Amino acid sequence: MSTERDSYAYFTITSSVPLGEIEAHMGRAGDGGCWSIGDRRKRGAKSIYSFSRWSLLSGIERENPLDEHLQALWRRLSVYRTKVIELPEGMNRSVSCVGQFKSYKDNIDLASGYFSTAAYYGLRLDFDFYFDGDFGHEVEGKPCWSW
Q1: Hey, CA dihedral for 115, 117, 118, 119, is it positive or negative?
Q2: Domain boundaries, the chain
Q3: Is residue 58's pLDDT more than 70?
Q4: Any residues with CB less than 8 A from the CB of 108 and at least 6 apart, and which?
């Protein structure tokens, strides 16, 4: 059984074309975290986005297990299957799965069918897992990524 304390999943399309072209292809605006190439980033007024991003969220609360987020995302994405499959070259598509755990020893359970579903849509799966624990290998005064 999965033990993540926070999780979410979302589908994204990234491209060098303006966001409007992605929205036109998909037939709708994205859910959140969308921007167009050349838009100013929220942080750093001088910084601009070098690519466009369109996203579709799972639509459920973050405290639900990642498994439930993926089930909800596949249901939402099924309406757009043809549009996803027919994305023009240069419009990259993927599903991001994010989980927050108390320890690196915590479990994550995902059905193998999610990988075949991703293949069915021609999607990459990206997993970003974060852990509160120190992995038991901490070096005093140094963060784990600098060991």
Answers
A1: positive
A2: 6-134
A3: yes
A4: 2, 3, 4, 66, 99, 101, 129
